[in-house]
Amino acid sequence: MKIVIIGPAPPPNGGISIHIKRIMHGLKTRGMDYTLYNESPTSIQDKHIVSLKSYKKFFLKFSFIRGDVFHFHSINKHLRMLLGVYALLGKKIILTVHGESLIQQLQSAGPWTRFLLIQSLRRIDGIICVNAAHTNELVKWGFHEEKIQTIPSYLEPVESPEDAARIPEYVYQWMESAPFLISANGSVRLLDGKDLYGIDQLIELMRRLKDSGFDACLLFTVLGASALNEGERRYYNELKQKIVRNGLESRFWFYEAEDTEFYPILQKSKLFIRPTLQDGYGVSIAEALHYGVPSIASDVCVRPEGTLGYRAGDVSDLLDKVKEIVQNYDQVKQRIQRSRPTGYFDELLAAYERISGSRTFVGKGKVISDEYYK
């Protein structure tokens, strides 16, 4: 069975590109054939990776591409509107919906565009949502329930010494000097005028922790800092000024990541926080729990088991949850060690087998039988 993947590969590193990187690793370790058509502009020398260049050129040659399953990860609305045409060519197609992108496209589109998008995606063989709420939402929009399934996007990290080496030494020095290191990550992005990744909440949290006498430091890994637009850049500067006004220069630090994985930072963290106002699942949370790091996250969606939730946007509740973990740290760590999350790669492979009609997959010592699909 050959899998054809369409989406971005790192660099740059992002949630979708890292997810695809880990899919390719999983396929490779199982000896499966695959090709990635890479949306990212970076040229990568790998026999399994082909530069997409343009959607138009890809569409013209699509009927000649060999593959048993075509797995799309693109968030491009126009490409999604073409997937139904691809399906008419006899291709087996799966779309993974990362985050809120498809729901937002359906809500914001005009009637005709919305009709075309829905009709296109109803013709493909499967849609994977990363959380059940999105699955239920798509059913309400008229998608066939039997074609939609929920598979969280978490795949276990693929560790390599190169990942740790790409993070500058001064970042490690700052982390090692922290008495209690809290980590978080995300982009500088506004949603309806509000901080999507909750950086403003984290600054206020650190101010309150300082005022209460708790000695902690927070490292926020910024993704895509070089690609910020004018409004985002202005807001980013405002956040930095707020840190200075609150006397947090030594306690709150931005690390602008450039093509580096996040897990080496998690490995050195005492606590991970995901204060997003909107989310799909929160892969970084599962990754933190994988390394035994206690994690707190906003209650905007279903979170990985073991996460301590707080009311989204409520800094007082967030502060209470931080204190709760700090006061019971050893017990929390022990609880996490007993129920560390596992990746969902086998579930993804099972979806490939179901869509392709094959029943040959052997994973983790078991053969997936027809009963799995009923």
Brief overview:
The protein is α/β, with parallel strands linked by helices. It is built from 15 helices and 17 strands.
How would you sum up this structure, described in words?
It is built from 15 helices and 17 strands. The protein has 374 residues and is α/β, with parallel strands linked by helices. Strands 3-2-1-4-5-6-7 form a 7-stranded parallel β-sheet, with helices on both faces. A 6-stranded parallel β-sheet has the order 12-11-8-13-14-15, sandwiched between helices. Helix 3 (77-88) crosses helix 5 and helix 9 (199-211) packs across helix 13 (315-327). It is globular, with a radius of gyration of 21 Å. The relative contact order is 0.11. Residues 360-374 have low confidence and may be disordered.
Helical fraction equals 40-55%
Strand content: 15-25%
Uncertain ranges: 360-374
Q: How far is the N terminus from the C terminus? A: 22 Å
* Category by helix and strand content: alpha/beta
The total of helices stands at: 15
Q: Kindly report the spatial arrangement of strands forming the biggest sheet.
A: 3-2-1-4-5-6-7
- Rounded to an integer, what's the Rg over CA atoms? 21 Å
State the major sheet: 7 strands, parallel
SS elements, strand count: 17
